């Protein structure tokens, strides 16, 4: 009997769906939608949700959410069919035959990747998002269906186990809530946020909700008076305005309490007021009128009409000091702005059913540009988890508005730097930036930008991204582009180093590298299962393959063992120009003139140490010399290297200034300095830039002139 009741209820909801969409769709479109419903109902026959309802109730609920946005027939049909491929034996091709390729592509975009095996749940989740957003970049309706799907699942989440409720709720807050916000879907955004909070922190949600209900009763009279005073004030200014009061959402109050370490009783602005007027001039008149009624709180005004949010949202925001010291948050907007605030990018279809609208077309274009940016990040990311990391960074709303020299406004997250701005302009600009002019003043790349800054990027043809940039950029696009460039450059440099290491090994066997024929390489690559010669050489540089073993396999006759017997007479020459493929150890700071050794570690490449470095001695003690290479300095090195020195000085004023001055006079830069104070002496440790041992000796000679230095030397390990 219970199952029959559920079936009847589902049929009733389907009837409501068709009645609702008939208000704006053509009769033939409603017939097409009914065809999709019956197809989906048949496919899901015998399937039930955890609540006991027939499964078809879920696609119907998703379609009804989208119907309220006045979305087109293709989207609604895809919503009704969105789980058919995933949960039944019906293929994408069958859907295409029955309902057309547009519907099947939308369904495919929403479907999960259940058939692919991943190592962890995190990989599954990340790859699902990757596919979904790739499809979304082709057609934004994919994400609209996915958001409606998630909203209905969140509305019915109480039937799940607590641990599953928590996981789904956290995923909703981290990914789907900011996507809904980024697309301007205010209603879906707010409801997903509240439901995510409710199931992530059930106890906090209950306590806060109880407190809100109590406060509502205490402040009802005050809010009523404010509402009446506001309406009367606007009428006297002869403004035709609709005024509504609203409570702030629980999650926004909770975030304020956590962010500012407040108790609930300290959060006064739990009420807001929305004023809707006929046009833009009326917005500013209403603002001035309300500022004369209640005093505005300094620094609490934002003009999102002049500078809209990235999701197209427009309103004037101001916080006023109401009666009894109660802060009041007001929003002033036009009717068109209100529609866009409520429906976001979905308002594009809402207005399409009523005629063309430039604002919604512009919003739709902005959303598409944002998604194209996501595609660039997707291309630059090495794996799904990295892409998900970039996505989470970019989803949270921008807080600052920065101007290009041409007056174009770019929106960036709070804390964004010059490098973030450069990559926001263009990837090539980011890759070649060296400095910037901020408001006509020269500024370094790590400078954090503020709203209103006018930024001009200075580039150089030979400049390239620095790994240090990753420590201060905040946008996903910048981080992804830098990592992609560094991976590409490191690979190229690793190929060159691997070739040098292999050539050294070949010569140790008495073989000229130039005599190795293409057929020998092809045979080796085929046997190794490696994609190419370049990949094999890069593996040698990164320590994944031993050069001696590869050299033996290249030179050994068929059937002969490839075990190496190396004559280590030849050495690798270090020029200091090997880039990221060769690293100089920070434990011993080798510089030209030092006796050096090369150590190869898997995935780390070749690292140069001094011969007396403890890391090298430890390897010799364990007789583990397979990873050790003979290396020598080149004869024409034209660069500086970091080197550590210390000076122990008497505690007298001005000594540090004199020490640093002498280092500068010796034509050396200081990278880092640390001080250790004792009662009578201070030990200063410096990391300097030196060309070679002779240059370092010059620095020490200059320092000897300072009487207060009791002891100095080179820092070892």
TrEMBL record:
Domain of life where this protein originates: Bacteria
Residue intervals of the ACT domain: 644-717
Matches recorded under InterPro entries: ACT-like_dom_sf, ACT_dom, Beta-grasp_dom_sf, HD/PDEase_dom, HD_domain, NT_sf, RelA/Spo_fam, RelA/SpoT_AH_RIS
Domain HD as annotated: residue spans: 55-154
Membrane-spanning parts: none
Example of a GO biological process term: guanosine tetraphosphate metabolic process
A molecular function GO annotation: GTP diphosphokinase activity
A Gene Ontology cellular-component term: plasma membrane
Keywords: Hydrolase
Record-annotated TGS domain positions: 398-459
Function, as annotated: In eubacteria ppGpp (guanosine 3'-diphosphate 5'-diphosphate) is a mediator of the stringent response that coordinates a variety of cellular activities in response to changes in nutritional abundance.
The family this protein is said to belong to: Belongs to the relA/spoT family.
Name this polypeptide is given: Guanosine-3',5'-bis(Diphosphate) 3'-pyrophosphohydrolase
Biological source species: Nitrosomonas stercoris
